[in-house]
Amino acid sequence: MQITQLDLSDDIIDLGVGQPDPSLLPLAVLRQAATHRLTQPDASLLQYGMEQGNEYFRLSLAQFISDGYGMPVDPDRLFITAGATSGLDLVCARFTSPGDTVFVEEPTYFLALRLFADRGLNVVGLPTDENGLVVETLEEKLAEIRPAFFYTVPTFHNPSGVTLTASRREHLVRLSEQHGFYIVADEVYHLLAYTTEPPPPMVSYDTSGMVISLGSFSKILAPGLRLGWIQAAPDPIRRMTRSGLLLSGGGMNPFTSAIVQSAVELGLQRKHLNRLIGIYRQRASDLEAALNETLSASTTFIPPGGGFFYWLRLPQDLDTAALRDTAKRNGVNFQPGLNFSAGGELHNFMRLCFVYYDSDRLREGVRRLAAVIP
Ligand SMILES: Cc1ncc(COP(=O)(O)O)c(C=O)c1O
Q1: Which stretches within the chain are classed as H helix?
Q2: Are 351 and 311 in contact (CB under 8 A)?
Q3: Is the pLDDT of residue 4 over 60?
Q4: Residue 370's closest CA among 297, 280, 282, 284?
C-alpha cells in the first residue's frame, strides 16, 4: 500500500516528507479542547452541519486569522473545508470542466498536479524566480489562452520556499480582473513565518472577488483533523455551498470544527502555533547551517523566510531522480525536482523538509546527502 503523505522507514532520514514531527502533534491541546467542548450540553456538533460551516466556528476562525493575517476577515466570507486539499478539489469540481486549462507555478505543489490530473485539467507551468511568479510571463500566456484559474502558493512556497512580493501580488490580481480568471491561492504556510513577515494574503489585494484563498489547520495544528477553510467573495462561496457534496453531506467536519473552535477560543491554537514557530525557526536555521557547511558551493538555495522547505539547485547536469536510489542506500531521502514540474523539468532540483526531524537528525541527513552528491 502506498501512502504518499506517510511512507517512512526508520533507517532512512527522509527529508522528502512534508508533515509535522509526530512528537509535535498536539494531543494534550486536543484533549483539553475536546473536554471543553464535549462537556457542554449542546449536541449540535453531532448533527449534519450548515453547508458553509458552523457560524460560531467561522466567527472564532475569522478572529484568529484576522490576528494572524493582520487584516479584518469576514466570517461570512469563510467556508469550512476538510483541509486545503479538499478545498482545492471542490474548487476544481465547481469552477472547471474536464479539458479546461489551469496555470500553475513552475515548480508547484506536486500533489495539486495529481488533483488536476484527476479532474482532467490541462496544466500549464509558468516560470518563477526568487520573488515568486514572473508575472510578465503570465501576461504573455494570457494572450494565447484564458485559464479557468491560476493556482499559486504565494507564501513560503512548497517546494521553493519563495514568497510572492507585494507588487507582484497586486499585478497578478489586476490581471485576473482584466482577463476574468480566478486566482486560487494556497496559503497554508502563511502563518508560519520565522525570519520574514510576508506581504498580506492574496485576498487583501482583491477588489472584485477573483481570489479564492485556501487555508488549513494541517500545518498549524494537526493534519489528521482534516480541517481547513476557504476565504472568498460571496459569489464563489455560494457556488461551493450549492454543490451536491455539501447538499447531501452537510457542512464539512462539524464535529472537528466544534473541537477546534474550543482550541481557538481557549487560546490553545495560538499558543501551539507560537511553539511551532519557535521550533521550526531553529530547525530551519540548523538545516541551513548544515547545508552551508557540508554541501559544495555548486549547490545553491534561497533561504525561505518560513514554511517547511528548502529547495536546492544542483549543477545542471545532475538528475536528482536518478540520485535518489543511491541516496536511499546511504540512508537519506528527498523529493526530486521533477515531481514538482508541470513540464517534466527541474531535474537538477531537490526539496528538503526541515520540520519533521530534530536538528541532530537534520544535520545527519545533510551529511548523508553530501556523501552521495557527486
Ligand atoms: C501547498 C500545500 N497545499 C496543500 C497541502 C495539503 O493541505 P491539507 O492537509 O490541508 O489538505 C499541503 C501539504 O503538504 C501543501 O504543502
Answers
A1: 27-38, 55-69, 84-95, 110-118, 135-142, 166-179, 234-241, 244-249, 254-265, 268-294, 320-329, 359-372
A2: yes
A3: no
A4: 297
Instruction: Using most ligand atoms within 8 A of CB, pick from 116, 192, 219, 227 the residue to mutate for ligand 1.
Output: 219
Say whether pLDDT at 8 is over 70: no
Q: Average of pLDDT values for 14-42?
A: 97
In angstroms, rounded to a whole number, what is the distance separating the alpha carbons of residues 80 and 69? 18
- C-alpha 190 to ligand 1 mean position (Å): 12
Which phi and psi angles does 342 have, rounded to 5°? Answer: -75, -20
Average pLDDT for the chain = 96
- Which residues on neighbouring strands pair with residue 79, listed in sequence order? 230
Residue showing cell 451536491: 244
Residue 315: asked if its preceding bond is cis (omega within 30°), the reply is no
Buried b (16+ CB within 10 A) or exposed e, 14-48: bbbbbbbbeeeebeebbebbbebbeeeeeeebeee
Cβ neighbours for 110, distance < 8 A, ≥ 6 positions apart:
159, 335, 339, 340
Collapsing DSSP to helix, strand or coil, 125 comes out as strand
> Does the CB atom of residue 83 touch ligand 1 within 6 A?
yes
| Full-model pTM | 0.96
Identify which of 17, 89, 111, 114 to mutate to test ligand 1's pocket (most ligand atoms within 8 A of the CB). Answer: 111
Q: Which amino acid is at 28?
A: A
Between 258 and 11, where is the model more confident?
258
Q: Is 305 near ligand 1, meaning CB less than 6 Å away? A: no
Q: How far apart are CA 115 and CA 148, in angstroms?
A: 15
